[in-house]
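Entry type: protein chain
Record version: 2
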Amino acid sequence: MDHSISLQRALYARLTSDAGLMADITGVYDVAPAAAVSPYIIIGFDSVAAFDSKSTSGQAFLVQFSVYSDAFGLTQAKTITAHLYRLLHQQNFTIAGAHLVYCRFEGAEHRFLRSGVLQVNARYRVSLQSA
């Protein structure tokens, strides 16, 4: 069973239900609308692999979150990525049709885009077993 849509929905709900994060950003998207104002987060592309055992089936995802900030310096973007870490790294949350085995921070990179906007790409490994 493919859990990618259920995972996307669970991640969106996890992020948007946190008052601290939402106070620091303007939105969470899978694709930012043209009128999006930074700072915001995109729950981006993921890669998926089988995460099966003899008795269970599952999937392992590598999910990328992109934080966009046009504030001067790195502080705003680092604050937002710290929220992501607090909300996701080794935390438990509900995913429809699946059991969360783990969610772990894998790494992040910062880069300035030609427009001057800072983009932080943070990756999380999420492993699920089918319910």
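Comment: The two ends are 10 Å apart (CA to CA).
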